[in-house]
Design goal:
With 290 residues, the protein is an alpha+beta fold. It has 8 helices and 15 strands. Strands 7, 8, 9, 10, 11, 12, 13, 14 and 15 form a 9-stranded mixed beta sheet that branches. A 6-stranded antiparallel beta sheet has the order 2-1-6-5-3-4. The protein binds N-(5'-phosphopyridoxyl)-D-alanine.
Length: 290
């Protein structure tokens, strides 16, 4: 089946989408992206992702070329046109094509590109077995709260992880874990407390993280937002990661050292179930469906 994407006002076969070689997204990495999960044909926690998109574009003084209402229509049309059941909708807005000057063009024409990917997020073998993680230095800039398409540090981090047989990289800055290459990072202490770094300019404020912390509180699971070190992670009884495209994956190994029992832990397993239930219910709501 030909995948249909959206580019600047048109629905096109993905392979026919063409962007100017002078697009500032291509030349400077001058753009923002967002990823919303699709489960059973409905969008998951989409308002949270759109709110973060609006914040990110605002932080780099970039205007969305369409209204949020239109953006949601496009997301839904992509789900329909691609017959997407489980996967993600990707959205990217860049400052568009312009002569190569670093400062903003006087009259930018932002590029809006959106497409879908199929992914079995719930029925993932990674969720059942747990994943391995490799730590790497966090080479990123000082505004990691902006969901920028400038992802070179994460590309290198995740490549190093893949070469070590790991699914994800945990980035470390000043002795503390910041987050995963494309996910939020959590450990569970011996007394069953979930620990994750507080939001700041050092990490992306994860939408899955935010929803999960609220669900954990409802489920009477203790959460502490504070910095943690790799040594604390090695000694943790459990660890896990969250993102829109994975929900919750238990972590069973870090830098070749077994975490907890080496099997997905009870708290990560319970939180994944709680999140999947939330995601299914949200994706069922009429407003989140085409
Ligand atoms: N990544 N931290 C980073 C650096 C990320 O890139 C992501 C998401 C997250 C988790 O955020 P959320 O729960 O809102 O997806 C944390 C997306 C999925 C990606 O780049 O594909």
């Amino acid at each position: 089946m030909t995948r249909i994407a959206y580019l600047d006002g048109e629905f096109l076969p993905l392979g026919e989408c063409r962007v100017s070689a002078l697009d500032r997204g291509f030349v400077f990495g001058d753009g923002i992206y967002e990823v919303s999960a699709v489960l059973d044909g409905g969008l998951v926690d989409n308002d949270s992702h759109l709110a973060r998109l609006v914040r990110s574009v605002g932080e780099i003084s970039l205007a969305l070329p369409v209204t949020l209402e239109r953006l949601i229509e496009i997301q839904k049309e992509l789900i329909t046109r691609n017959g997407l059941v489980n996967g993600v909708v990707y959205m990217q807005v860049t400052r568009g094509p312009a002569e190569r000057e670093f400062g903003f063009p006087a009259a930018p024409k932002p590029t809006l590109f959106m497409f879908t990917q199929t992914k079995e997020i719930v029925a993932s073998p990674n969720a059942a077995t747990g994943i391995r993680v490799k730590s790497v230095p966090d080479l990123r800039w000082a505004r990691c709260d902006i969901k920028s398409v400038s992802l070179l540090a994460q590309v290198l981090a995740k490549q190093a992880a893949a070469e070590a047989g790991c699914y994800e990289a945990w980035m470390v800055r000043d002795g503390f874990v910041t987050e995963g290459g494309s996910s939020s990072a959590f450990i569970v202490t011996a007394d069953g407390t979930v620990v994750t770094r507080p939001n700041s300019n050092a990490i992306l404020p994860g939408c899955t993280r935010k929803a999960l912390l609220a669900l954990a509180a409802e489920g009477a699971i203790r959460v502490e937002e504070r910095l943690f070190t790799l040594d604390e992670a090695f000694a943790a009884s459990e660890a896990f990661m969250t993102s829109a495209s994975t929900f919750v994956y238990p972590i069973v190994e870090l830098d070749g050292r077994t975490i907890g029992t080496g099997k997905p832990g009870p708290i990560a397993t319970r939180l994944r179930q709680i999140y999947v239930d939330f995601a299914r219910a949200d994706a069922k709501l009429a407003e989140n469906r085409p």
